[in-house]
Amino acid sequence: MAMDVVDYEIFGHEMQYVEVELDPGEAAIGEAGVMMYMQDGIQMDTIFGDGSAQQGGFFGKLMGAGKRLLTGESLFTTVYHNEGNGKRRVAFAAPYPGKIVPVDLTTVGGTLICQKDSFLAAAKGVSLGIAFQKKLGVGLFGGEGFIMQKLEGDGMAFIHAGGTLMEKTLAPGETLRVDTGCVVAFQPSVDFDIQYAGKIKTALFGGEGLFFATLTGPGKIWLQSLPLSRLADRIVMASRAAGGGGKEGGSLLSGFGLGAVLGDDE
Amino acid sequence: MSDAPLPARYYPPGGDAHGHPVRLAWDDGSLLILRDDGPGLRVPQHALTVEARGFNHEQWALSWPQDDSAHLLMVADRDIAPLKRVAPGLFQVGEQHRRAGRRRLGAGLALLVLLPLVLAGLLLLFLDPVVDRVVDHIPPEVEQQIGAVVLARTRAEGPLIEDGPAHAALQAIATRLARPGEKLDFYLAQRPTINAFAAPGGVVVVHSALLKEARSAEEVAGVLAHEIAHVELRHSMHQLARAAGLRLIVAALFGDYGTLGGWAAQLGELKFSRDAEREADLRALDRLAETGIDPQGLLAFFETLSRQEGADGLRPPALFSTHPATAERIEALRAVLARRPQSAAQAIGIDWQNVRTALAAP
């Protein structure tokens, strides 16, 4: 199955968008609701499921849509067709502060496992599947849940995650311990597991939780520096509605007034 | 191997993280590694170690040692079939690991699903004793407050009849039934439905239609004895506490109180309600015998009720009803009465026709 080759350009620093150039007849798929702008000549078509060619018939489409429900995405994807005569551009914007990573699926062996919700856009023909986490412990404590997303095909895919994204290639047997929730994507040859933090004291007061996620090579991995959930927690904590004082550096102490005294330097 | 060479990624010793795309073939007991960018390799089967690796163990790692490092090949599970056919022995251990992993997942998931169910079952099992304890500790003042609220709501819903022959008749029967010192208040409500209910705090409300349909004072006395039994046994308080407990368990199981969970809780409450009715029926017989009132009145009233139901043709199925089927109640009461010695009955002596005419008048 030949994929559409797309040229792209990423704009912005902390809040990015990607502009994809489509030749006449080419198409891209985008997560519903992320389109930012498109030029004349691009036709927008909303389809049920993920638009990859492999799903035939009504039942196949239904399965595709069911998968998208499980990965927490909307039931519909939008296909952007270039029906014009020249090259046309369409842009997709990231929904929260972070980085957009372009991944050429051919360079990673055709398959990429990624965090659910991280898909932004792709060349038409890339299929969005689910990868069910089969290790119970990892599903419960690994920070990514039981459902991950599997991108398959040989085109370009754009994934998005919070903060700064780090790309690293792990050598065979090389292990990296990662805070749970920071794993964005990895090649299927990478072993994703969890490891007990080791000391009760660290687990309770180290602020990293009971477990680390561990990634063991060989293969490429992508990590995010700021998971959206962490950002959201901080915003809620700092908001007046939740009783936050609007000051950083509070710990348990601030709840008893001592922190407020220490932190008050106005 | 007759099949086309299968794709793999080769990581030579020395920590090359990126690896090289290669193709694998099988030739006479050895693995052939065909490289586009370098010389090929030949590895005999006995040197190879194979394990399931990668995400969900969906990759196969083939390795062989060299010095104190190792060569590594990664092959996707979907590509491995031809190699598995020619050298099945290599994959035995890895397959065992994968099977064990699947079993662990199955057992873990089953536990995750069953544990909350078992906990909820235990809670249900201990609900009744807990509810009994809780109700025992509710002070009478609280009960009276709830009773006052129910009474206020009854008043708001429609008029009460607070004088006249019907009111007097009701009070007369009540006085005869009540034991000295019992806190009981009877109210007559102007309503077209045949009903009577007991609220917490000794509040008993009788609908006027019930008095109108009854053929004698004894029938009404039977119903009142039944309601007094509810008061005595504090059924309404039990029911409130039980409903609260059930809803708590269901909410814990179904998260937010779903429709299905709501139905389950309601069915549980209805079952409790039917058991309470049976208990109250039996208690009513005791009280009637104690106060010398003919228990046939209660039976006669149930027969009137069952005729009414037959005429209306509207009855919920037994499972969904607050009360047991009337026929079943009559049957049960007859059986009990047959076993008990007949006690001497004294007529209540109220001209019931007079009461019915008074109620029929607009």
From TrEMBL, chain A:
Pfam families named among the record's database cross-references: AIM24 (PF01987)
Superkingdom per UniProt: Bacteria
Stored InterPro entries: AIM24, AIM24_sf, Trp_RNA-bd_attenuator-like_dom
Classification via NCBIfam families: TIGR00266 family protein (TIGR00266)
Entry protein name: TIGR00266 family protein
Organism the protein comes from: Zoogloea dura
From TrEMBL, chain B:
Gene Ontology molecular-function annotations: metal ion binding; metalloendopeptidase activity
Names of required cofactors: Zn(2+)
One CC-aspect GO term: membrane
Pfam families: Peptidase_M48
Domain Peptidase M48: 167-335
GO biological process, one term: proteolysis involved in protein catabolic process
Family per record: Belongs to the peptidase M48 family.
Organism: Zoogloea dura
Keywords, sorted A to Z: Hydrolase, Membrane, Metal-binding, Metalloprotease, Protease, Transmembrane, Transmembrane helix, Zinc
Listed transmembrane segments: 105-127
Cell membrane keyword on record: no
Cofactor note: Binds 1 zinc ion per subunit.
Entries under PANTHER family matching the protein: METALLOENDOPEPTIDASE OMA1 (PTHR22726), METALLOENDOPEPTIDASE OMA1, MITOCHONDRIAL (PTHR22726:SF1)
Protein name: M48 family metallopeptidase
